[in-house]
Amino acid sequence: LSAVRYTGVSGAPFRQEQHRRAVPPGQEETVTMTVTYAEYGPHVGDQDALKLTVAGAVEETGQVVAKELRVRLHTPELTLTLLAPAVVGQETPVQVVFQNPLPETLSGATLRMEGAGISCPKPFQM
């Protein structure tokens, strides 16, 4: 398991596991891996993905199979709600809701509103 930058460049693997299984004819085997935010968080940036590479070898034949899966990490959405009618030339209160999905406190966030008719966007420190 490794991080992949938005440019497509892979980082060094930060987790590796090895499993040995005997799979009877016509059967399938499932291996489950859980990755916590504490484990992958230090390796990813805001536009990164996770790359899971799995390879298997058949002892009897020497055949190798491999598969790669990229998992795009989704950022949480902001919810915007107008709290009063929007009237040209007048201020309009807007409620912005953001729910932190991480198991740690976020700090140093800045909201910046931009749009038609907003002459000078002002950052709002949280």
From TrEMBL:
UniProt keyword annotations, A-Z: Acyltransferase, Transferase
Highest taxon, organism lineage: Eukaryota
Enzyme Commission no: 2.3.2.13
The name this protein goes by in its record: protein-glutamine gamma-glutamyltransferase
Stored Gene3D superfamilies: Immunoglobulins
Record keyword Transferase present: yes
InterPro entries the UniProt entry points to: Ig-like_fold, Transglutaminase, Transglutaminase_C, Transglutaminase_C_sf
Any one GO molecular function term: protein-glutamine gamma-glutamyltransferase activity
Statement: the UniProt record of this protein carries the keyword Transport: no
Domain Transglutaminase C-terminal: 3-67
